[in-house]
Amino acid sequence: MSAPAPPNQPSRRRATAGVFLGAAFLMATSAIGPGFLTQTAVFTEQFRANFAFAILASVILDIGAQLNVWRIITVSGLRGQDLANKVLPGLGYFVALIVALGGLAFNVGNVGGAALGLNVLFGIDVRWGAIASALVAFYIFLSKEMGRAMDNFTKVLGVVMLVLTLYVAVVTKPPLGEALLRAVAPTHVPFLPILTLLGGR
């Protein structure tokens, strides 16, 4: 009996790269929501070019924290919740509760953002827009047939979102030179934006 043929390595690499690209794309698009836009507008108004330092600092701190967390989880072979329970009994359940509450709050914000969008586009009352958005979300998550269609639709909308974000960044003509300077040499260190951006990640 002949040995089974080894798996096609290039196709596996392409599949893995596709998964990572899809995950990165999902993270990039999901980060641009009502909360992100509100925070960015408020902090840019308050801190001007110094906000660039907050963005750079939060990215560096976030990368360090993420690498540290995933390294510990990978080496231990435990889920994050189980690992937290070993550090302090009950901590894992508390963290899971906080994550669930945070997810609920963010999704309420997303429904509210969709309601505001419907109000701007079609003049629909915000309350009715929120109800309609919530019902559509329930239907999507309860329908198994909608999964693949929503994946493709999300990719299209994600590309549109990124293009519009780039368009706004070009049209508003921000002072890039000053922002680059203040990213490494701020006149004031904005601790609150750094903390807020880290919490949002």
Quick synopsis:
By secondary structure, the protein is mostly helical. It has helices at residues 9-30, 34-47, 51-76, 80-87, 91-122, 126-142, 146-171, 176-184, 191-200.
Work out the helix count: 9
Mean pLDDT: 82
The whole-angstrom Rg is: 21 Å
Order of helices and strands: HHHHHHHHH
User: How many β strands by DSSP?
Assistant: 0
Give the structural class.
mainly alpha
Report what the structure shows.
The chain is an all-alpha fold. Helices cover about 80% and strands about 0% of the residues. The protein contains 9 helices and no strands. It has helices spanning about 10-30, 35-45, 50-75, 80-85, 90-120, 125-140, 145-170, 175-185, 190-200. α3 (about 50-75) crosses α8 and α3 (about 50-75) packs across α9. The longest helix has about 30 residues, at about 90-120.
Entry keywords:
201 residues, 0% strand
SSE blueprint:
Layout: H1 9-30, H2 34-47, H3 51-76, H4 80-87, H5 91-122, H6 126-142, H7 146-171, H8 176-184, H9 191-200
